[in-house]
Automatic annotation (TrEMBL), chains A, B:
Catalyzes the formation of 2'O-methylated cytidine (Cm32) or 2'O-methylated uridine (Um32) at position 32 in tRNA. This is tRNA (cytidine/uridine-2'-O-)-methyltransferase TrmJ. It is found in: Cytoplasm. It holds the Pfam family SpoU_methylase. The keyword Transit peptide does not apply. Keywords: Cytoplasm, Methyltransferase, S-adenosyl-L-methionine, Transferase, tRNA processing. Its EC number is 2.1.1.200. One of its GO terms (cellular component) is cytosol. Homodimer. GO terms for molecular function: RNA binding; tRNA (cytidine(32)-2'-O)-methyltransferase activity; tRNA (cytidine(32)/uridine(32)-2'-O)-methyltransferase activity.
Length: 243, 243
């Protein structure tokens, strides 16, 4: 199953049916089809919604209804909640690009919920606490009032971009495994030790440059093992007696 | 002047005033304020436009009117045109992310036009030929009918992301200098020679991994020089006589 079909767009108590229709159209243009509505209202899929959905009425027709936030996210392995006021949630904050990447990565393992709150007041604190990650769209500080369907459009766009990037990766290659911080520290210490012994590192300027380079590259585990193997190869040669 | 103020969003003959209002709101949430309308119609800034602009009516109020596409782009140094049917324009195609980066880069030198065509038929071929670059939003092949204001939202979002990335770069540091392909080839050959001599490289599997890593990292010239210095340091040590 395509990862895109694992992703659920959840709108919590939207006020305007037009936003529901526009969100459906935004989703379908990016290849997403699963819409969930948390609402007791029966008029959210009215004529206005259908008109604004344009060619995406199929998304409205297949939309699932839930009477609570908990029920809407119950079968999802990953829940990402969106809100404008998230500054206190530093540790779990994602920008839209990371959100798209995270959603697509997790979609191979299970359902992913991308949750959008009420137009005026967003998600409640209780709802935000039930999300593993929190999405912050970095809007203009002077005017950050993004329309609900526009927020859905940006997030669905980033999901699609992450999905397209995944398609372009070589087929059948397992997802990369990344080293933890301890393994990276060992690698940097190993490098510093060896090149100090070689007389190449004589001041504090070299290691920060190497750290910056390899952190930017987001070293994969097999690459880290390769680089450590190269360090060890140099060490072994240095220890050999010369002819 | 902030690069964002150099960027002009140009709507060519929009049909629906609501899209003009929504586009204004989309722009302002991302910090863009310059809207240009190519249209003879006098009803494009009607009540519907004002209602959908929400807190961005200032963008509508300062919108500039032009009676032709040529006049609207006359003072712009860079013109990027958007359209859904661009497959034949391979050489000048940009995706939204590259479009944001290109627009922000050029905005330090002059005005940049991001042009959006008519809702149903987009830009004419004659108009597209007057654009240096062409923006293609990679929508769902089964349903790519992105609303005009949604397209504006995605592009303005990518402009903002590129601008924010620029803000995060260290102040006063010159833009990084990147090595050419020849310098990279020298580095890879140097690495292969040394580690083959060390007995570490014994097959064809190692170099493609290293190439992939360093190409992904987009090595800067000073980093390449550092890595080559490390190779030379190892070589020198190997040549030294042992005690």
């Amino acid at each position: 199953m395509s990862p895109l079909h694992q992703i659920q767009i959840i709108l919590v108590e939207p006020s305007h049916s037009g936003n529901v229709g526009s969100a459906a159209r935004a989703m379908k243009t990016m290849g997403l089809t699963n819409l969930r509505l948390v609402s007791e209202r029966t008029d959210l899929l009215d004529e206005q919604a259908v008109a604004l959905a344009a060619g995406a009425t199929s998304v409205l027709e297949s939309a699932e209804r839930f009477s609570s936030f908990e029920q809407a996210i119950a079968d999802c392995q990953l829940v990402i909640g969106t809100s404008a006021r998230l500054r206190h949630l530093q540790n779990s904050l994602l920008e839209p690009r990371q959100c798209g990447e995270t959603a697509v990565q997790h979609a191979s393992q299970g359902k992913v919920a991308l949750v959008f709150g009420r137009e005026r007041v967003g998600l409640t604190n209780a709802e935000l606490l039930k999300c593993q990650y929190h999405l912050h769209i970095p809007t203009n500080a002077d005017y950050g009032s993004l329309n609900l369907a526009m927020a859905v459009q940006i997030v669905c766009y980033e999901v699609r971009m992450a999905w397209l990037a995944l398609q372009e990766m070589p087929q059948n290659s397992p997802l990369a495994d990344y080293p933890n911080q301890e393994a990276l520290t060992h690698f940097f210490n190993h490098t510093e030790r060896l090149y100090t012994a070689l007389g190449f590192i004589r001041n504090d300027a070299v290691m920060p440059k190497l750290r910056r380079l390899y952190q930017r590259a987001k070293l994969e585990t097999n690459e880290l093992n390769l680089l450590r193997g190269m360090l060890t190869a140099v060490e072994k040669q240095l220890e050999k007696p010369r002819h």
